[in-house]
Write a structure and sequence with these properties.
By secondary structure, the protein is an alpha+beta fold. It has one domain: Jelly Rolls (Sandwich), CATH 2.60.120.10. Helices cover about 20% and strands about 30% of the residues. The strands form 3 sheets. A 5-stranded antiparallel beta sheet has the order 2-4-11-6-9. Strand 7 and strand 8 form a beta hairpin. The longest helix is centred in the first third of the chain and has 18 residues. The radius of gyration is 16 Å and the shape is globular.
Length: about 200
């Protein structure tokens, strides 16, 4: 078992623990989607990201409920294929030095699944992730740090570890970090699992 296997197992374990005590939470991981049962490990080329350097040094202020997952992500940093979803001319200069995500589970992830996508996403402090949308329904689960999430039709909400927010298909949404970075587990379900986010005009 390498770092990726350990990370996947840790995510699945959290999924089960989140379900055990949150049956009344409409946005619990389990109620959004049960853990996939069709996972197959596949070879995916590694791809570095400047943000990984910042994440690797983040070992402070962790929440004990999610610290195990935080450390499992750091242990796998050198094994993953970091992605960015956008062109450099679409976002502010320097954004890509403090942002990145990788597809842990999904059609092109380190573990294939046709049932859903699971991403790990990182945004550094004092960063604005502008409004965007996509076909797939989405759930953000905060692992570490905090940020303010906005979505069309809802007031802004500041979320920290273990808190979650849901985005409907094609619902524009954005995020802003403050003095803290944020590390998240992001789930996609429904149609558009092979799609990509689109920035709002």
């Amino acid at each position: 078992m390498d770092g990726l296997d350990h990370l996947c197992n840790t995510v699945i374990d959290l999924w089960h623990r989140a379900a055990a005590g949150s049956n009344d939470h409409k946005n619990s991981l389990w109620q959004f989607a049960p853990p996939p049962d069709d996972l197959i490990r596949q070879t995916v080329l590694r791809h570095p990201a400047a943000a990984a350097t910042h994440l690797a040094a983040w070992d402070y202020g962790l929440d004990p409920r999610t610290a195990t997952l935080h450390h499992a992500i750091i242990a796998a940093l050198d094994l993953v294929q970091w992605q960015f979803a956008y062109r450099e001319d679409e976002l502010d200069e320097g954004f890509f030095d403090h942002y990145g995500f990788f597809e842990l589970i999904g059609p092109t992830g380190h573990f294939t699944s046709k049932q859903l996508n699971a991403y790990i996403g990182y945004w550094g402090p004092e960063l604005f992730y502008p409004a965007h949308y996509h076909e797939a329904e989405e759930l953000y689960f905060v692992i570490s740090g905090e940020a303010t999430f906005t979505a069309d039709g809802r007031p802004p909400v500041r979320l920290g570890p273990t808190q979650q927010t849901y985005h409907a298909s094609w619902q524009p949404h954005a995020m802003t970090t403050g003095s803290s970075p944020i590390l998240t587990l992001i789930l996609w379900r429904g149609s558009g699992l092979d799609g990509a986010p689109i920035l709002c005009p």
